[in-house]
Amino acid sequence: MDKRYSEMTVQELKDEIAELSEKARKAERLGIVNEFAVLQRKMTMAKAYMLDPSEFQPGETYEIEGDPGSRFVIDYLNGTFAWGYKEGSKTKQAFPISLLKKKQA
Description:
2 helices; about 100 residues; single chain; alpha+beta; 5-stranded antiparallel β-sheet
């Protein structure tokens, strides 16, 4: 049985990301869009487990990777997910912490 990302060591996570990356390249080459998207999301989640959630602070503003110009304010953290609001939105959303980048001054 496969391990959950939360049970893997950093090296196991790196190996998993490398394997997923290779599968994603193959899916992209073959034009299998849905599989490519799923593999990209799995890589994002594996990367989130390699980060320390305590480095992400509620009330702080972060940029969202892949969404240029958007800003996200963390309300609270739940594991490897940050819950909060995109600036200008009243809808609470969650993002894996691996998608959040410290806002550039």
